[in-house]
Amino acid sequence: MRDQVREKIAGEICLSEEPGRTIRKWREQFVISQQDLSKHLGVSPSVISDYEAGRRKSPGIATIRKIVDAFLEIDEKTGANVLKQYSLAGKTDSIISIKEFSAEILAPELIQSIKGDNLTPAIPLDKHIHGYTVIDSVRAITTLSSFDYLKIYGWSSQRALIFTGVRFGRSPMIAIRAHPLKPALVVYQKPEHVDELAIRLAELEGIPLIRTSLAIGDLVDKLQALG
């Protein structure tokens, strides 16, 4: 799994139109500061900052591999929590669509793309979204085990979870509140009615709750075009 993760990250950075943003996305996913990464690599923090901001020429393959190896080595020193999460990734019957973005996007961009209605305006939308998962909420409730639940987070918990087949929206938020992993954003696709309890739980967790009226096919098409 370590080699698979290493090759996935390196390939994603190399193929990205904005490699600096992709480096930043993965650094944030591994919860590594620019200072810690630069110290591990033996370079100035400004070098990392310049790469991520696009002020410095895109790094070559050798440098990218050093950066990726640094992500993994720092993670392993602190218990390999990120690597362990990725070893659980995989698709289940309750997942309709799942994707990791090549570079993170801001929450307002995703919300605008899916014509979303923000139900929690008091929660800041300054979140970076690394990917999304569209989930059949009925199947998730009836078939998803605690082990399978981890799979909906794919390669990054910093993602949007989009639930279809929602009636009142309480069950998805209760499940999210009970689990240590938290998404960056929650979307309900064509809910019958969003209960005040669901909104309150989202506010308690500090997770923006969005409603969209797009049909599932249109919604997936819009999401696939992002990132």
Count the strands?
6
- The backbone outline, from C-alpha atoms, is elongated
Q: Give the total of domains.
A: 2
Full CATH superfamily name of the largest domain: HprK N-terminal domain-like
Provide an overview of this structure.
There is one protein chain. The chain has helices spanning 2-15, 19-29, 34-41, 45-53, 61-77, 81-87, 107-113, 137-143, 146-149, 170-178, 196-205, 216-224, and strands at residues 95-106, 117-118, 128-136, 160-164, 185-189, 209-212. With 227 residues, the protein is an alpha/beta fold. The chain folds into 2 domains: 2-85, 434 Repressor (Amino-terminal Domain); 90-224, HprK N-terminal domain-like (Udp-n-acetylmuramoylalanyl-d-glutamate--2,6- Diaminopimelate Ligase, Chain: A, domain 1, 3-Layer(aba) Sandwich), CATH 3.40.1390. It has a 6-stranded mixed sheet with strand order 1-3-4-5-6-2, sandwiched between helices. Helix 1 crosses helix 5 (61-77). The protein starts with a helix and ends with a helix.
Structure described in brief:
With 227 residues, the protein is α/β, with parallel strands linked by helices.
How do the strands and helices of this protein lay out in sequence?
Blueprint: H1 2-15, H2 19-29, H3 34-41, H4 45-53, H5 61-77, H6 81-87, E1 95-106, H7 107-113, E2 117-118, E3 128-136, H8 137-143, H9 146-149, E4 160-164, H10 170-178, E5 185-189, H11 196-205, E6 209-212, H12 216-224
Parallel strand pairs: 3-4, 4-5, 5-6
Antiparallel strand pairs: 1-3, 2-6
Helix pairs in contact: 1-2, 1-5, 2-4, 3-4, 10-11
